[in-house]
Specification:
about 140 residues, mainly alpha, Hypothetical protein af1432, about 0% strand
């Protein structure tokens, strides 16, 4: 299983949309925010720069995604969608989400990412394979 950022964003968008619709939240904003939450241009897997700790991908990509989304889709942006994109990395981004929809996309992103990491093939390549190479 090799999930691209595109596939991940689609999954977060769809899952957030379904849950928000059931909860009576703004499901359109959740779908858009879910699609654009990782709208950055530098894949973190290939980022081997020696940036300072708080300049590493996990801390800065939400701001990059929001900036890219505002440039590319200005007609879709509003304070709710911008908050969804900016705050999806909470608690790495220390300011918590302002809206329930932002919390929802943040949690769905975490759950979908954990689900991806614990896929047997991914788990093997990240954990077990590394242990074997240390011997």
């Amino acid at each position: 299983m090799n999930e691209s950022v595109y596939d991940h964003s689609l999954r977060v968008s769809f899952d957030s949309y379904r849950i928000a619709k059931r909860l009576g939240l703004n499901y359109e904003a959740c779908a858009i925010g879910g699609l654009l939450h990782d709208f950055y241009d530098k894949p973190w897997q290939s980022n081997v720069s020696n940036n300072k700790f708080f300049q590493k991908h996990g801390f800065v990509h939400a701001a990059q995604a929001r900036m890219n989304a505002k440039k590319t889709f200005p007609h879709l942006m509003n304070p709710l969608i911008e908050d969804i994109i900016m705050k999806h990395m909470f608690p790495l981004n220390i300011i918590p989400p302002k809206y329930l929809e932002s919390w929802l996309v943040t949690l769905v992103d975490k759950v979908d990412s954990i689900d991806f990491l614990f896929h047997p093939k991914i788990f093997y390549s990240l954990v077990l394979k590394r242990k074997k190479s240390r011997k």
